[in-house]
Amino acid sequence: MLEGIFSGLSTAVLPINLLMVAVGCFAGTFIGMLPGLGPITAIALMIPITYGFDPSTGLILMAGVYYGAIFGGSTSSILINAPGVAGTVATAFDGYPMAQKGQAGKALAIAAISSFSGGTIAAVFLLVAAPALASVSLSFQSGDYFALMVLGLTAVSAFAGKGQVLKAVTMTLFGIMLSTIGTDPAAGVARFTFGSMDLVDGISFLLLAMSTFALSEALLSILRPTKDTRSDEQKALKSLGSMKLSREEVKTMIPVIGRSSVLGFFTGVLPGAGATIASFLAYGMERNLASAKEKLGFGKGSIRGLSAPETANNAACSGSFVPLLTLGIPGSGTTAVMMGALISYGVQPGPRLFVEQPEVFWSVIISMYIGNVVLLVLNLPLIPYISRLLALPQQLLVPFVLFFSLVGVYLVTFNTMDIHMMVIAAAIAIGLRLLNYPMAPMLLGFILGKMMEENLRRALAISDGSISFLWERPITLVILSLSILFLAAPLIGNFRTWMRNRKAVPNDGEL
Amino acid sequence: MSINRDKFGALIFLCLALIYGSYVDDIPLLFGDEDAPFNARTLPNALAWILGVVSFIQLVLPTNKEAGTLSAAFRGLKWGRVVVLAVLMVLYGLTIRQIGFPISTSLFLMGGFYTLGERRPHVLILTAVLVTLAFWGLLYMMGIYLTPGDFFYYLGWMSNDA
């Protein structure tokens, strides 16, 4: 393991990789601060750029973008109460009131220090947990992998939010359906290609990610114009105030950071949970632990209330790499995009990655730590300068996003048909977004669909066509039981609410 | 009558499941695969059934009034500019080979800026052309050469040996 850490360290500190961490954090912060564009779009836009690099460098750049986007989202939350990313909504609860009191600089410093500490502690956990889990998962069989993928997909649906479970399940199934288009890898027969040569290789992951996130988000910002918050953000940045923290304030933050890091990391490891849930859980936990007097300060600029979600969301980002790197199963839309990129580089994430390409595995973990240092040392002082980029007017910004998305895909295949397919996919994505269908489960279903089919086919072949492999090994049975539990719990909850409402209001027949 | 947004979505996915399911039988099977426990049709068949059942459940479950109506979801949207941008993207795909990357990209960007309300000629032209040329140069340095366009070869302005 030590050898692996040193190999990772030597790869991570290569000048090109250090540069990529810095560039990633910088670009991510900028995109995260823009209203409407999230970390998935930020990472998707980076993929074509990373094709020219080796896998470690590419993944390091994307990890930097991920952290940067979350940090950028926090900045908008604190300064103007407009979270650019769902994971930073809880940050606004106490960050924005602090900024209103004229302590925006202090709030940004608390957010940056908490993010740095949460990310650092989580990176240490990752250093221990990832190899341990990778070693255990080496003994996994096809049936276990199939069960794990089912768990990943059901968990994403289960954590989708109130009233969204069935929609998330629908989108997951839609994603798996899209993955069946093209040549069946085992039998070599064409499926759903309708005679088109452009579909024989299936739909490209990059095309799908770019059109359903980058293109559709950019077009939606035109279709459903929201208040352009960039000028407010720039105004707020002009009166930041001091960034210095007192000894008392640091003392208050230390235990919060410790607790929220642990909570955030383990929430991030769970498939489907992630930065958003982690930040809300940490905020709730701190509020419950606070004394009656401190509780009154929550929502009015409490240091604990700001530090907890910021620590937890960054720790969760690191935690979400555990299932990706060790099991090859992404737990969120963001890690799904990274996994798609890794597969395109020819790297198969999973337990074999730890054995076969330790430099990729370890350099990513080490670079996470470096990324946190970059965010604290470089990004925090640079925030006012990054904000100047926000002066780029929307009428120029949107065509640029469209151009980079289209060209990013075109440069991989040099097939103009892909550009037309992107327009169609973006139109469908806009329609689905307007109907309130989440996009991340679809991407996850698309990525895991092929692997799930392959593992199910192999497991059935080994067990001679019998489905007994689902319960013969205790590990498979436990994982599948968890999947059923994850899926059933919100459905039962919904059903009970409906029953209660039905008793209260006897008739409801509207379609 | 305005249908509930969630119900409309469920209806669309139910139709999709039916259409997808109806094409499953078109998937060719290798000799002997018909009786195999898992063949190229197994997963698509299962997916069509599961999606059909999930959408049907969503359709028959009590209406979620918070979702609002379909007309409310599509009300007040600015379709005009989005449609123009979509047309521009399609045109970009059609012309990138013919008139080449530099010209088609510059025109696409200029069209995009204009559609979204930019009217200053120096911003429109200079930004589009400079960004395009900078990007083209960057790609060239990375070893990716995008041809100036078939059109110029037809005119005989450029050699095919390039």
Provide structural commentary:
The complex is a heterodimer of chains A (511) and B (162). Chain A starts with a helix and ends in a 7-residue tail after the last helix. Residues 507-511 of chain A have low confidence and may be disordered. Chain A has one domain. Chain A is an all-alpha fold and 511 residues long. A two-stranded antiparallel ribbon of chain A has the order 1-2. Chain A contains 23 helices and 2 strands. With 162 residues, chain B is an all-alpha fold. Chain B has 2 domains: 5-73; 79-155, no CATH class. Helices cover 63% and strands 0% of the residues of chain B. Chain B has helices spanning 5-24, 42-60, 70-73, 79-95, 101-115, 121-141, 150-155. In chain B, helix 1 (5-24) packs antiparallel against helix 2, helix 4 packs antiparallel against helix 5 (101-115) and helix 5 packs antiparallel against helix 6. Chain B is flat. The termini of chain B are far apart. The relative contact order of chain B is 0.10. The mean pLDDT of chain B is 88. At the A-B interface, helix 8, strand 2, helix 9, helix 19 and helix 20 of A face helix 1, helix 2, helix 4, helix 5 and helix 6 of B.
SSE topology:
The complex is a heterodimer of chains A (511) and B (162).
Chain A: H1 2-12, H2 15-33, H3 39-50, H4 55-80, H5 89-100, H6 104-137, H7 142-158, H8 165-179, E1 182-183, E2 190-191, H9 205-223, H10 230-238, H11 247-269, H12 275-289, H13 292-297, H14 303-319, H15 321-327, H16 333-345, H17 351-356, H18 358-388, H19 394-413, H20 416-434, H21 440-462, H22 469-472, H23 474-504
Helix pairs in contact in A: 1-18, 2-4, 2-18, 3-4, 3-9, 3-16, 3-19, 4-5, 4-6, 4-14, 4-16, 4-18, 5-6, 5-14, 6-11, 6-14, 6-15, 6-18, 7-8, 7-21, 7-23, 8-21, 9-19, 9-20, 10-18, 11-12, 11-14, 12-14, 16-21, 19-20
Chain B: H1 5-24, H2 42-60, H3 70-73, H4 79-95, H5 101-115, H6 121-141, H7 150-155
